[in-house]
Input
Amino acid sequence: MITTQILDGHKTVTNIDGRFDIATDQPLPQGEDTAPSPFDFFLMAIAACTAYFVQRYCRKWNLPHAGISVDLEPVFSPQHTLTDVKIKIRLPTGFPAEHHAGVMRNAAACPVKKALESPPAIAVELVAA
Output
């Protein structure tokens, strides 16, 4: 279960399954910019998941994964609505070309990306104490 507590100002702390606490804040001028925003974590999840699946491919084929990075660039409309997400997988010089397609296939297997491609229904319910 994921539970978020509302703190002072625009800050929150989210607990994941009783194991991890993650602080968030809003950027200036809405918040104090003391922690990543929830939207930063949303975008980070896409990049981190993609990187994991690239790394998994490399481990399967006993390929070095040092020097591989994943860059994510969000694209926003003039109304500041997310319209596109551009992901670049940077492979080091000398990475075997015959594995490029496999890296791309594995990167595309990221379940976070797949959840956005077929978004789930989200139900919000008010529960009075």
